[in-house]
Specification:
By secondary structure, this protein is mainly β. The protein has one helix at residues 69-74, and strands at 2-7, 15-18, 21-28, 31-36, 50-51, 57-59, 66-68, 79-82, 85-90, 98-101.
Length: 115
């Protein structure tokens, strides 16, 4: 297994690409989780997804396919957030190649806490 920490914010290095698959930390009204930032259908930029109004589904910006949050959570990556950092456990081997990147997040995936 591969354990990595990356930024849990919109800024630099908020994405980790493991074996070429990008992951971001998403924060929604339905919960927070590490999300594969690539649509499982056609590889679209799921980090730019919107949430379907009145439904618990992410909508891919490329082709409009909706993916239930439950699927994302079931296949999700175990993670813990502390402050502005998230540490996640990926099923890849410890020696797997990875890179820290920046990915913009849609407003629907970067819920702000009420003050």
């Amino acid at each position: 297994m591969l354990v990595l920490s990356f930024a849990a914010t919109e800024g630099a290095q908020n994405c980790v690409a493991v074996n070429g698959t990008p992951y971001v930390y998403a924060r929604t009204a339905m919960g927070s989780f590490v999300l594969a930032a690539r649509c499982p259908h056609r590889g679209g930029p799921l980090h730019l997804a919107t949430i379907e109004p009145g439904r618990a589904r992410l909508v891919c910006p490329w082709h409009g396919r909706a993916t239930p949050f439950a699927r994302s959570l079931r296949s999700g990556t175990p993670a813990v957030r502390r402050g502005y950092t998230v540490t996640a456990v990926f099923p890849d081997r410890a020696a797997s190649p990875y890179a820290m990147e920046h990915r913009p997040l849609s407003p629907d995936l970067r819920l702000r806490r009420a003050r």
